[in-house]
Amino acid sequence: MTDAGTTTPPRRSDATRSAILTAARERFAADGYERATIRAIARDAGIDPSMVMRYYGSKDGLFAAALDVDLELPGPEGLDPREVGEVLVGHFLDMWEENEALTAMLRVGATNQAGAERLQGVFRDQLVSLARQVCPDPEQAPTRAALVASQVLGMALTRYVLRLPPTVALSREEIVAWLGPTVQRYLTAPG
Amino acid sequence: MTDAGTTTPPRRSDATRSAILTAARERFAADGYERATIRAIARDAGIDPSMVMRYYGSKDGLFAAALDVDLELPGPEGLDPREVGEVLVGHFLDMWEENEALTAMLRVGATNQAGAERLQGVFRDQLVSLARQVCPDPEQAPTRAALVASQVLGMALTRYVLRLPPTVALSREEIVAWLGPTVQRYLTAPG
DNA sequence: AGTGTTGGCCAACAAGTGTTGACCAATGGC
DNA sequence: GCCATTGGTCAACACTTGTTGGCCAACACT
């Protein structure tokens, strides 16, 4: 999060820059790529649209900068293979609730090629390596990770994007209880 | 499909009308709502953009007309509650492969309110009534139908929209074998 | 103090959008 | 053969979009 070392000198405009990123995440999450206009983002951030261009080059550049997501998946330590399903589902729910960049990526990924690839990248890199640690045959890790993604993204889609009332009404615990065993099976059941 | 009865007199322009609908479904499925322009749809259909307006009133009207989907879920007869999961997953895969309107609805639903509501309607009306027939407590039918939707839509999302390579590589049989038991459990497991 | 750099706003551009209305050509009933 | 209806094109309107360049004020350094 904070600057660690000599990577970037602090600029006077950092406040504006991060205001733009925050507004961009909100707009992308709420409206998707096409309908999240630079003008609207700039208005939310309280500055002129041309500033967005100066700082991020283009709308694509802004998108790339705004949606840098780390799933923060648990490492090998503290990962009990027998309850990885429930832990994972709970973790994803937390991520989604607190980080609107994930909803933004999902919404944008549905219509925008760059968004789809970014979503692919996040789940491929971070989920597959976890799957490799817990599934019986490491060869199957990509397939099993994809199955997990289908269920987790499906829940995110119906709950945070489509807002199907019954999925919105479910509590965190209920979702974990329902999806946990599914994810558990996708990851650890003999292939 | 075909005209049954005296509902609508056949018009000379029926060929054009259905050409427009076909092109619209393709474009909506491929590009989503905003990027599927009326001009592009008209070009695909080989006519002038203004015809689209004349026949369907507006872009919203075209969208509504193009995406009228019947899931064709099996009725109470021929529905063995013990294998409803696998049957349902197979059925959804067939629907998705042959009907691009479903992919269109999914893509549009991610960014467009009307699309989201339409998707909600389709799954609510058609899936819930099926759930009511097989789940132990009819009171829970909406919740169970929503869980099924989360898994089925999640697979459709990763396979037909995001095109995650491992999900694309799976065969119909593999998907049925993996998702079938999940859907079965969401529908019939004691609550 | 003076000067270069940075942060910011304003006005405009070119392109593309949904939508409209005027106009033409073919059809079909009388 | 005449004429109303239908199927279709063309050109334009009003608007929004991403993007650009010119200009001004505040700062930082010497």
What does this structure look like?
Two copies of one chain form a homodimer. With 191 residues, chain A is mainly alpha-helical. The first copy, chain A, has two domains: 14-66, Orthogonal Bundle (Arc Repressor Mutant, subunit A), CATH 1.10.10.60; 84-188, no CATH class. Helix content of chain A is 71%, strand content 0%. Chain A has helices at residues 14-35, 38-45, 49-56, 59-66, 84-98, 100-109, 113-134, 141-161, 165-169, 172-188. Chain A is elongated and about 55 Å long. The termini of chain A are far apart. The model of chain A is unreliable at 1-5 (pLDDT under 50). At the A-B interface, helix 1, helix 6, helix 7, helix 8 and helix 9 of A face helix 1, helix 6, helix 7, helix 8 and helix 9 of B. The structure holds a DNA duplex (30 and 30 nucleotides).
Question: Care to give the gist of this entry?
Answer:
Chain A has 2 domains: 14-66, Homeodomain-like (Arc Repressor Mutant, subunit A), CATH 1.10.10.60; 84-188, no CATH class. With 191 residues, chain A is an all-alpha fold.
